[in-house]
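Still learning. Any example?
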Amino acid sequence: MTQSLWYVRSGEDTSGPFPIAQVFQYVEIGRLGPGDWVSQDGVSWSTVAECGQFDAALDSFAKSQARASTADGDTADWERERALARQRWADERMDLGQSDPDRPESRAGEPLVLHALRQDHLQTEARTRQAIRQRLKYSHAVIALAVIVVATGAVWYGQSRQPEPAAARLIPQTDCSAPATAEVAWQGCDKRRAALAGVDLKGARLDGARLDAADLSRTDLSYANLRGASLRGANLSGARLIGADLGKADLTGADLSQAVLEYATLTGAHLAGARLAGTRLGKAVWPDGRVCAPQSVDVCA
C-alpha cells in the first residue's frame, strides 16, 4: 500500500518528503504546476497532472486564477492577500519539513535524494568499466560480440514494453471490505455509524467516504485524505488530524472537542454546529483560507 509522504521536484530542485495535504496545498496555490514532478519513493516520478492525486487542487488553482483575472478593486486586493497568506503558510511548512538536524546533506546543500542518485550512478559506472576491462582481457572476440547482441536485445525488449500508467502505480485500489488500518483505501465507501474509536488510520484514503455519525473518537487520522468526506454528526473528540486534508468535507454537527487539527487543511469545509471546545488549530487552513495562529485553540485566531 502506498505511503502518505511525497517528494517534489520543480526544475532542478528536489525536496521532501512532505505529507500529501501539504503537496496538495502547494498545487492549490500554484507553487507546483501540472508539469512539476512528484514521487513517493524518490525514484519513480510522474508529473502532477499525470499522477491523478491532485486533480482537484489543479482545478481549484485554475478557478482562483480565473477569479483573480476578473476581480477588481477590493475583491482583487482580498484575493491577493489570501494567496500571500497561504503561500507564507506553505513556506513555513516547507521549512519545517527540511529543518531536521539529523538529515544528511551532500556538498553545497545538495538534497539527499540527488546525492544518493549520484552515488549510485558513479558506482554503476565504475562496475561497468571494470566488467568491460575483464571481458576484453579474458574473453574471445566472438563471445564479446554475443554479449553485445544479447544486451541489445534485452534493451530493445525492455523499451518495447508498455509502461504501467503512473496513476495506477500511485493510487491504491478501493477496498471497502478491508480492515481498518493505517493507509487503508476506503475512497467513497459507506462507513456510516462505523465503530472506529481509537483506531490507527494514519494516511488513510477516505476522500468522498460516508462517515456520518461514525465513532472516530481518539482515532489517529494524521495525514489522512478526507477531502469531500461526509462526517455529519461524527464523534471526532480527541482525534488526531494533524496534516489531514479535510477540504470541502461536511463536518456539520460533528464533535471535534479536544481534537488536534494542527496543519490540517479545511478549505471549503462545512463546520455549522461543530463543537470545537479545546480543539487545537495551530497553523490549520480555515474554510475561508485564513491560516490559524500557532497557538489557536477553540477558534482560528
User: Anything to note?
Assistant: The two ends are 37 Å apart (CA to CA).
